[in-house]
Fold these 2 entries.
Entry 1:
Amino acid sequence: MSFREKSAWVTLITLIVLTIGFALHLPRPWTLSPAPSPFLFHVLVAAIVAFVAIAVIAHIVLAIFSPHDARAPKDERERLIELKSIAVAAYVYAFLSLGSVFTIHVGANQIGVGYLVLLSFVVAEIVHYAARIYYYRRGF
Amino acid sequence: MGKTRIENRIRRLRFDRSEMTQQELAEKVGVTRQTINAIELGKYSPSLEVAFRIAHALGVSLEEVFSYREETDEETRSEPRTKRP
C-alpha cells in the first residue's frame, strides 16, 4: 500500500469517527435554538482541532515508516485519481448542500441549516477519500 | 473497468533485464510502484511521456513495450469502450 493510500485511509477514518462524534452532539435542525449555541461551538472547535492533531501525528508516523514514498511527488496516476475523486465528491456536496437548504421548509432554522451545510461538506470529504481509496485499490 | 486495448510487455522485459523489480523500474521512470503495477496489469494507460520513459528505462523502443490491439467486431459489441485518461 502506497503512502498516499495509507494517508487517505487515515483521513477517512478520522473524518468518520469525528463526524459521528460531532453529529451525536448535534440536536435535530428543527430543535436548535435560533441563537448560536456556545456548547456546539466548543464541540465544533474541539472536532476541528482533534482532526488536525490526529492527521498531523498520523502522517508523521506514516512518513517515518516510509520516508521515500512520503517525499516523492505525486505521479500522473495519483493526480488523476485525486481529480476523479474530487469530481465525485463535488456532486455529493452539491446535492447535500442544496438538500440542506430545503430543510428550512420543514422547520429547520438558520443555525440548523448552517450545521447541515457543514455536515454536507464533511460527508463530501468522506466520499472524496473513500473514492480515492476505491480507485487506488482498483488500479485506476 | 475492463482492460484497455493497449497491451504491454513490461513484465517480460523487466525479467529479461536481470529481473528488474517494479520498484526499480518505478524509480527510474519517476512514478510509484503501484503505478507500474497498474500499467503492467492493463488497468491504467500511461501518458505518452511516461510510456517513453518506461521504454527508455528498459532500453528498448516504445513499440517493443506497448502495442495497440485492434478490437474485433465481436469484442466491440460485447465490451463497452474503456475510458482513457
Entry 2:
Amino acid sequence: MLRATRYARVTALLLAPAGLFLGAAFLLPLAQLFRLSLGARDGPLAAYREVLGSVVYQRVFLNTLIVAFVVTVVCLLLAYPTAFVLARLRGGLRAVAFYCVLVPFWISLLVRTYAWMLLLGTQGPVNATLVALGVVSQPLPLLFNSTGVLIGMVHVLLPYAILPIYAAMVKVDGRLLLASDGLGAPPATTFRRVYLPLTLPGVTAGAVFVFLLALGFFVTPALLGGLGNLMVATLIETLVNERLAWALAAAASFTLLGAILGLLAVAVRFVSLGAVLAGGR
Amino acid sequence: MIRFVGVGKHFGAVEAVRPTDLTVAQGEFFTLLGPSGSGKTTLLNVTAGYVAPSDGRVFIGDADVTDLPPRRRNVGMVFQSYALFPHLDVFENVAYGLRVRRLPTPDIRRRVAEALATLQLNGLGDRRIAQLSGGQQQRVALARALVIEPAVLLMDEPLGALDRQLRKQVQLELRHLHQRMGRTTLYVTHDQEEALVLSDRIGVMRAGRLEQVGTARELYERPASAFVAGFLGESNLLAGQVTHLDGDRAALRVPGWPAPIRGVAAPGLRVGAKATALVRPEHVRLGAEVPDAPEATEARVEEVVYLGDLVALRLLAPGPATLWCRRFARDGAPAGDTVKTGFGLEDVRILPD
Amino acid sequence: MTLAAPIRVAVQALAALTLGFLVLPILAVVPASVNPLSHLRIPPPGVSTRWYREFFRDPEWLTSLGNSVRVALLTTALALVLGVLAALGLERLGGRLRQVFTGLVLAPLIVPVIMTSVALYYVGQRAGLVGTTLGMAAGHTLMALPFVVLNVGVSLHGLDPMLPRAAEGLGASPWHAFRTVTLPLILPGVVGGAVFAFITSFDEIVISIFLAGVGAKTLPVKMWEVIRVEITPVAAVASTLFVALTVVLFWVVRRVGARSDAPEGAPAR
C-alpha cells in the first residue's frame, strides 16, 4: 500500500512544474482579465452590456461571424477535392503534394500574410496578371478590404480543413465503394450515398477547426483588412492599445471565448475530435 | 530459497491470489502451473517485487523482502515478451545489470562472455536485438537474468512465443542448464508438458488458490482433485456418487455401470457425496487383461486414432461415458468391436469434486 | 468509384490549383527579397542583394533577430523541461484526470491568442515582465508546451512498459532506468517536440506584439511594425529567413522521425 501512494506522489511531482506554470502564466492572467471585465465603472455587467448591446460592437461581431462563415465554406469547397486527390495519390507524388500542404502550414503566419500584401497590391503580380490577361481593364482593389482578408484567411486556414478531411478519406474502405459500384449505382449516387457520409466526420472536424480559428483571428485581418472591416480580435487590440478600455476589451474577449466554447461543445456531440486529431497528425 | 507466508493479493474487489503458504527449496526448480487468471503470474510478480502483496510476507533466503523494491531483491527475471532493450546490442543488454552494479569493465567483459557461451550465443555480442531469431532473443533474455548471479531466477512463460519444435528443444536446454547451475527457479506456465519436463516440483493453481503441490509423479499418479487430474496428463473422468468408504479404499456408483467402481480414495471424500473416478488412458484394460470383478463391463470401440507408436481407442462405455484407451499399436482392437473393459483397483482414483 | 472523365479532370485541376495557391505566395517572398525594385514584379527584372545588405546593416533588424533566437532557445528549454516531465506524468495518469490535465495543456491553443496576449500584457505590466526575454519566453512557452507534450507523449505511448520494469529488475534505480532506457527510446519525440517548440516561438507574433515592449522585440514584431507602415522589401528578407529556417527544421524533424521508424523490436527474422 505504501507503494501505491509513492507512485501517486511521483506522478504529482512530474506534473507539478507544468501545472504550476500553466496556473501562473495562463489561468491566473485569464482570471485577472475576467476580473477586469467585471470592473467597469458602471457596474459588473456594464462592459458586457455595452459589448453585446452597442450597435457598433454588434456589427463587429456580425462581420466576424460572416467572415468566419464564408472562409469556412470556401475552405471546405477547396479542401474536399484537394484531400480527395491527395488520398488517391501514391508514392513520391503524394509526398510532394503533402509537403505543399504541410510546409505552408508550418511557415509563420506573418510571413504568409505579408506575402499576400506583396501579391495583392494594385501594382502587384496578381493585378498585373489579371490586366495582362485582359480579365479586367483596371487593377482591382484587393488589399485593405474584405476581399484581401478573405483570401488571406482562406490561405492560412486551408491546411486545417485539408488534413482532417484527408484523414477521414484515407480511412474509407475502398471495398465499400466497389460494392456500391457492383450493385449498379452510378458514380454520383455512390458518392452521395456512400463516400460523402463516410467522409463527413472529417469535413465536420475541418469545418469546426477553421470556423473557430477564424473567429479569433488577428494578424491577417489586421494587415489585410481596412478600417471598415474590424473583426473581434482587431477590435480587442484597438480597445487595449489605443483606448486603454480594459473592461471592454476583457468583456469582448470573454464573449468571444464563450462563443468558441459553446460551438465546441455542440460540435463535440457530432464528431469525435480526439480521434480525428490523432488521425490527422 | 523462496518462502511465502500467507501471501495474498487482491485488486479492488478481485482476489487474484488467496493467502498462500509455500516454500521453494534452495536450488529447486518450482513451476506454478495453471490456466490464465489462476494467479500464477501475480504470485511471480509479487516475488519479483513489481506487485506488493495485500497480505503476508515474502522471504528470499532468510531476508524479508516484502517491502523492498525489485532492484534491491537480487532477482533475475525473464519476461514473457523478453523485454530486451532495442537500442542496445546483445552485449550491452546482457551487461546492463552488471553496469548498474558498477562492476569494473574487465569483469563485465568476462562475465558477459561466459554467459553468452553458456547459452550458446557466442559471436552474437554486437548484433542488434531485431536481428535475432525468437530462440536467440529468448536466450539473451536468460543470459541477462543469469549474469547478475541472482538469488532466484523468475520466468514468466518465457517459451510462449516459440514454435513447438523449438519449445521442446529449449525445454531440455533449460533443464540441463538448471542441473548445471542449480539456481533456485520459480517458473510460470500453463503448459503441463513443459511443467513435467522442467520441474522438481509443481504447484497447480486455480482461481488464486494453490490446489496441490508435489513432484510431477505425485501430481500425475495421486492428484488431489479432478481439476489437477485434468490439468496434468490425459484422464478419463467418470462422475458418480460415493457408496463406500473404508480407509484409503472407496467405491463410486456411476450410472449405467453394473456395480460401483472401486479404487483408491483421495482425501476429502464422504459417503453419499458426489465424486469423480479418474483412470488414465494407459490404465484402461481390454479383453483378457480385465480383472474378474463385478464392475467390469462391455464397451464398443467407436474410433481408433493412430499415433505412431500408440493407438488411442475411443470407447463407448455404459453411462453413456466415453473412455479413451491408449495402448501399443499392436495390442489394439478394431473399430466396431465390442470388448470387455475394466480397470485395476490400484489404477482408479476416486477424487472429491 | 470511377468518376466520369470530365469530372475527374475538373477535380484534379481544382486540387492542383489549390495546392499551387497554398505554395506560391510563400515562394513570392524569395524573389521579392532579391528584387532590385521596391515593389514586387514577376518575373523580377533582375537580382539584387541590396535589401539583404540593408537588413544585415540595420542594428534594429539584427537585434530583433538576436532576440528571436535568444527567446526561442529559452522557450525550447523551458518547454522541454516542463513538457517531458508532464508527458511522463500524464502517462501514469488514467481516465478523467488525464483528460483534464491534457485539456489544461492544450487550452492555450483553443483560447484565442489575442485574448491570452491581452491577459498576459495586463499581468506582465504589473509584474515588470513586459519587454524582457524571460517574459516573452514565458508567453511563448504556453504555446510551445502542447507540442512538446504531444510529441513526447506519442513516443512514450509506443514504449514497451516492460522495458523500464526489466531495467529496474536488473537493479537500476527509477532515475537510472529513465536515463538509460526510457530517454534514448523517446528521443525522437523529444527532438521533434524541441523543433516544434523552437519554430513556434520563433514564429509567434501576437503574444510577442504585446509582450515585446521596447527591450525584447523579436523578428516578427519588428517586421510587424515595419509592414504596417510601408511595404518594404527588407521585410521580404526577414520573410525569406523565416521560410529557410522553417524548411530546414521541417527537414530535421522528418529525418529524426524516419530514423525512429527503423525496426525496434521488429518481429524476428
